[in-house]
User: Fold these one by one.
Assistant:
Number 1:
Amino acid sequence: MIIGLYFAAAIVLIYCIYICFIALKVTPDISINEPIVNQKISIIIPCRNESKNIGLSLKSISLQSYPKSNIEVIVVNDYSEDNTVTEALKYKDIVNLIILDNKEAGKKGALTLGIQKAQNNIIITTDADCVFHRDWVLSMVNDFEEHQLNMLCGPIQFKALNSIFTKLQQAESAAIVGISAAMLNAQMPATCNGANLIFNKLIFEQIGGYTSHQNIATGDDDLLMHTFYKLDNKKVKYTMNKNAMVTASANMSFTEFLKQRSRWLAKRSFYIFKYNQYLQLLIFFHLMSFYLLIIWCVFSFNYLALLCIVLKYGIDILYGLKLKQIFNFKLSLILWMPFYQLYIFRVLLYAKFNTIEWKGRLVQNK
């Protein structure tokens, strides 16, 4: 039993060292140069059955501080079965809008079509259920141009409603983005989100676009980022400029949440940088160790177990304070995160025994 205690304590200590490393790397980005507003850009929005969201997204784009004459918006309808196109057309006189019908079913097919038809070399991808800070385009373009990048990944956050479930998703999302940004900027690419990417169209075509991972329905974000990084690791970056923030909708249903996390899990077996698998194991075993230490303290009080629990919470709160400089979430939610993250075990079982679908389409996870 004592060996188990020492093992759990060692895992939690390793986790704390890792989070300290991440926390030190998480700092808000602020552009200090004169704003760049003369670059023409194309925003690609693939959408399938997004009639409830596409209008808010296009309205948010119409309110951008970046010159509207330099923004082309391409909405690619991916075989929607609702009024997505009708809702989008309401904004044709407000933004420079082009609507295309996808020729090849799937998000990557929709994105590829939009990128092919784009008139500009600077591409931004986002999702139809997102809204944006008014300086989103300005901030992304400035950081992209200032560092002469091939790809720039931007921050996202979830919109939390009154439920504790959505608020926990908001806090967890901030933590994931912080880890993703710190890892990429430390030359260890992990994840990013396709709802906030900007990249060079010519380089996208040079690396073959999504062809290296065309056989899965997800991965249009981090798998593409890995391919960009492999081509030139000096020209891929993650910005933590809060003005570049994209806000997406949190899952209201736990079942939908499980499906989302299962999709995320599906693409990770395709990661080309194997240390990501070790990172997943660290997160998994640190949670198991945390639960073991809690049980130890409840049934057989132990100062080492208590010290590890206090240390873990202290480091997590330190990380939360750094994240609060960029994201909106309640710091107190960090205390509940380890218990909320019990869903990890449910996701593993769900992914193993259920068919994973995304908007009615099979997600390959083998």
Note: The CA atoms of residues 214 and 280 lie 24 Å apart.
Number 2:
Amino acid sequence: MVTPRATRRLNRGQGATNAQDGIPATPWFIRARLRTRHLLLLTAIGEEGNIHKAAEMLNMSQSAASRLLSDLEEIIGSQLFDRLPRGVRANWYGKAVIRHARIALTSLREAASEIDLLKSGQTGHVNVGTISGPAISFVPRAIASVAREYPLVRVRLQVESSNRLLEALQAGEIEVMVGRLLDRHDTSSYHYRRLADEPVCAVVRKGHPLLARGDLQMQELADLPWVVPQVDSVLRHRFDLMFREAGYPSPKKLIEAVSPMVVTRLLEETNYLAILARDVAEYYASCGLVSVLPVSLSCDMDSFGIITRKDGLLSPAACVVCEALEAAVAGTDRTERRVA
């Protein structure tokens, strides 16, 4: 509930400008003199659902924690937690503040880590996320190029779906992403630099009897067993749509698998076909793990690119990685890159 005192504070500072002199209003977090302790308390209460337990985590008394929380709620003008018989639960306002508090704490931890790296002679670090196709094809080449030119730059790489990587990017867990921005995503929050398209192909185990066929038809493919991505993935949707548009039902004999490594092992043990990004398929084929089936599939994936957030400057290490990614896709090696 908004108290009269809180209402007066909101009226003084929550509007766009001061009515008397036109000076922009002071943001609430400055008026509240928001400190790291506030952020830690908010996230601790959100995790524990209990003010007493959150206070213990932060080595403060419950009364001090309650007072800090009450001060914040009064300044904001809304309760952040619903009081329950045995604890508290974040409401919509609380969830919003906690989400941004976590992002702020992540940024502060990264700042501290970056300062420590600089003090110890390191030049920085960058967390990179990528989808599986680029992870197999050009991303390792880009990271190897960075390691040669900037051996003190540390790169941490994770491979996930585009949806998961966008969540990590928004939360500040990664700084650079190689993936897709689809229509359902809020593109206004991100910078996007297109890198390449991603065609797909069918693969089978080495020595598969279908490799001797050069005239496979869509009807035959619909009757064959397949290893496919999970139902909610873009590639699975386009795989099923390819058969429907050709007038045939989707294949019924299916095994769902996400990891390309698992897919190749499944192919070794069966006569199934699998659908993979062409770059991934050609890499595994070069290693003798699969063979690319001579058949055309009309379910290519959307293009992918480098995705970064608009609301912050990239670190020097991240800029180096982005340049290396572009150079790797272009098939060049920019030896004159320098950290800005």
Note: DSSP finds 14 helices and twelve strands in the chain.
Number 3:
Amino acid sequence: MPFAELQHDLDERAAQGLLRRRHVLESAQGANVTVGGQPYLSFCSNDYLGLASHPQLVAALRQGAQQWGVGAGASHLVSGHFAPHHQIEAQLADFAGKPAALLFSSGYLANLGAVQALAGRGDTIFADKLNHASLNDAMLLARANVRRYRHNDTAHLAQLLAQAQSGRKLVITDAVFSMDGDLAPLPQLLALCEQHDAWLLADDAHGFGVLGEQGRGSLFHFKSPRLIYMATLGKAAGVSGAFVAAEQAVIDTLVNHARSYVYTTASPPALSVALLQSLQLIRQGDGLRAHLRGLIEKLRAGLAGLPWKLMPSDTAVQPLIVGGNKETVMLSAGLRARGIWAPAIRPPTVPQGTARLRISLSAAHSAEDVAQLAGMLHDLAR
């Protein structure tokens, strides 16, 4: 029976400490959540500015649903493109410093659509080896030639670009790497794209709202038309969806050829009403970003001296490398038994031997929250 084969594979994953299970939240997203009737101090969420339950966003979503209903009813190209969709696209383009933007229902769909629309047979995609799964899947589905360069190794990328003789050249990278928390060398990547007549598509899912002037992202001060900017709206923005911002010709190409846009029912227009409010809060969020930077510094100081390696990261993503899968799961469970939720991340999400706690900080956390986490980890180390 095929079910027996599936169960055998699942049992093997469980034996290796790799079986994934879901946890059901019984409260709104925030620094403090309820799971299984138990309260937890959460370091799991990508809600970096603490906006996911912000009362102004809740009110905007309610007003949006009252005015526009709860479903779009069709794809954007049929009858599902509403005024709030159009408004948020215009504001996101302006915020990102690009001529135009296109709204997608998720970051995964945005990467799938953009990469497939811009590269195909006879073209070459150059990809960082630690890119997000959505970029990896997109480059495979594009049916282009794929060349992967060593993580953040611009010399290796330069060699590969020089070898490409024909077709379009598209470099794809995370701007902030979601599991390591480090930054791509964006100025050097863009310079290589200028030199070799290539495009640079940067996924700033973990930088938008947090990094750059007014939270405008990792690439706001880069004005090159070769830059194609993708960011998600369910992390620091606190709502849902994603967008691609680029030159008008690029956006028009996506409207016509990005399959994950053309053939998907549009997101509810009420979400775009909430996003319009979120964008205002991000613009005004310098205090939130300053508080978050202080928490990052406090956490890194507090975790000094642990037997586990804290990776170098100046972002809200703070990975603590444990190594073994079972050991990482045990450490996560030890924290959970003490009322702290920090997720164990294991292969294939990260390379073998680098299982880790992925500690996510939010402006919703307090300095006392961070001190509590650090103290618990030191207790468990002893």
Note: The mean pLDDT is 96.
